[in-house]
Amino acid sequence: MNLLLKFIFLFLITELSKIDCWETRSCGTNPSCEFKQTFLSQITAQKFPKHCSTICGFLIIQKTDLNAEELTGLFKNIRILVGGLQIVGTKLENLKFLAGLRRFVQDNRYGFSSERFKITYNPELRELGLLNLTTIKSRSLYIANNEKLEKLNLPKLEVAKCLRNNCTIRVSIKTNASKFCITLKELNAFTKKRNKCDLNIDSGICIPENEPRVCTVPTEGCERLIGDLNITKGFDVRKVESLKRLYGTLNITNTDFTDFRFLGNLTRIVRLGYKTALVVVGNKLLRNMEFPKLRRIDSEIRRFAHFADNSEASHADFKSCYALRKAALQKGGLWQQFGDGRSCEQIEFPPTR
Ligand SMILES: *[C@@H]1O[C@H](CO)[C@@H](O)[C@H](O)[C@H]1NC(C)=O
Ligand SMILES: *[C@@H]1O[C@H](CO)[C@@H](O)[C@H](O)[C@H]1NC(C)=O
Ligand SMILES: *[C@@H]1O[C@H](CO)[C@@H](O)[C@H](O)[C@H]1NC(C)=O
Ligand SMILES: *[C@@H]1O[C@H](CO)[C@@H](O)[C@H](O)[C@H]1NC(C)=O
Ligand SMILES: *[C@@H]1O[C@H](CO)[C@@H](O)[C@H](O)[C@H]1NC(C)=O
Ligand SMILES: *[C@@H]1O[C@H](CO)[C@@H](O)[C@H](O)[C@H]1NC(C)=O
Fold first, then answer.
1. Residue 177 CA to ligand 2 centre (angstroms)
2. pTM attached to this predicted model
3. What is the pLDDT of residue 31?
4. Which residues are near ligand 5 (CB < 6 Å)?
5. Which keywords accompany this UniProt record (predicted)?
6. In degrees, to the nearest 5, what angle opens at C-alpha 116 toward C-alphas 125 and 160?
7. Is the pLDDT of residue 124 over 70?
8. What is the per-residue pLDDT for 350?
9. In the prediction, which pLDDT does 165 show?
């Protein structure tokens, strides 16, 4: 009986895991929906499978002679794209011709480049405007050097994730348009809990209007703070007791706190840019360095935390060291070192002289 249950369970797991592959499989069985020409132009457009809702192939739209209207006509039925997509060096102002696209799924059978989802060097591009896109499954996501880009405008994006466990998504949104910002919803899709994204987002975060639980300075009742949080002697802890997510650096310097229980609701720190996510310096009365609910730290750098000049007791707290390292490790596996340069192992087993 036990064995039978096990068998059924295994069967279900196998079947469920196939759902992910389902889209990529449909490609092999429906060759009329493949686009083999790769580069999209007036000439190759004649072979574009424009009646298919799922299209398979590596699509490259580069310095194309097709205008936005012609592209809209070609793509009006497309819901799912399996393969790759590159839009490079065009004069397009947005990608709304792809507004019907719901899912993008990378497939290595098509194309030659490892950059599966790439939108670069489009000097007139103001926004992507993929209004119905909910899911991106790709090894890489690369959006860069679009000088005038102001926003992504991916309002329905729920998840951008890896196809396999062992891979990273590189979300690289480098642009010198000072106006550019990424929304909290888009950022959440890129940093989903199970996602092992290697983040590289060179951008500010859009400040939402009329969101009472979002703030830019510490405020009582605020749950998501966009900006750095500096905590020094005399800080009014009531302002952060309800804080759940911090989008910036947490800097606790020269305080008299004995523990961090006042940050008991904080579950996550997301630090964009090449900056330390967590700074704890000169807290002489600290008994430990535990953050009760902090389970994830998204940082772009290896040394995500810096601990120095605190009490001896807190610096010997290897348990919290492991917990913090685990919180950061969920993403990549790059972060071996902790705080003041010592690893958690070195704190647990100090080298004997
Ligand atoms: C986006 O999806 C909505 C509903 O899901 C649909 O009404 C709309 O036509 C879609 N947009 C495009 C451009 O296909
Ligand atoms: C962006 O930077 C490039 C290179 O530094 C420069 O040539 C270009 O004018 C800049 N664009 C804008 C919109 O500032
Ligand atoms: C993950 O991929 C890298 C390079 O592709 C490889 O070196 C490494 O062994 C892989 N790790 C696992 C656990 O499969
Ligand atoms: C936090 O402290 C740093 C260093 O003193 C300072 O540059 C920054 O402006 C402060 N940020 C806030 C939000 O107070
Ligand atoms: C942290 O705060 C202290 C005191 O406000 C400041 O001197 C220091 O520069 C800050 N560090 C960072 C990385 O913001
Ligand atoms: C967490 O937030 C809730 C609701 O805002 C509050 O009642 C509770 O005291 C907070 N916990 C801590 C440790 O501050």
1. 8
2. 0.85
3. 81
4. 230, 232, 249, 251, 253, 276, 279
5. Signal
6. 80
7. yes
8. 85
9. 54
Our answer on whether the CB atom of 176 is closer than 6 Å to any ligand 2 atom is yes
218-240: pLDDT as tens digits:
999 999 999 999 999 999 999 99
Residue of 345 and 330 predicted with greater confidence: 345
Residue 40 sits at φ, ψ, to 5 deg, of: -95, 120
* Segment 206-228 mean pLDDT: 95
* pLDDT at res. 262: 97
Domain ranges for the chain, please list them. 31-205, 214-348
User: Taking a C-beta distance cutoff of 8 angstroms, is the pair 257, 229 a contact?
Assistant: no
What mean pLDDT do residues 59-70 have?
Answer: 93
Atom of ligand 2 minimally distant from the CA of 178: 14
Rounded to the nearest angstrom, the distance between the alpha carbon of 294 and the centre of ligand 6 is 14
Domain 214-348 class? alpha beta
Q: Whose CA is nearest to atom 10 of ligand 1?
A: 100
CA separation for the pair 69, 242 (Å, rounded):
49
Q: Is 6 exposed, middle or buried (0-12, 13-18, 19+ CB in 10 A)?
A: exposed
Q: Determine the distance separating the centroid of ligand 2 and the alpha carbon of 63, expressed in angstroms.
A: 20
Q: Which ligand 1 atom is at minimum distance from the Cα of 96?
A: 13
Q: Quick check: 79 and 100 in contact, CB under 8 A? A: yes
Quickly name the fold that domain 31-205 has. 24 nucleotide stem-loop, u2 snrnp hairpin iv. U2 a'; Chain A (3.80.20)
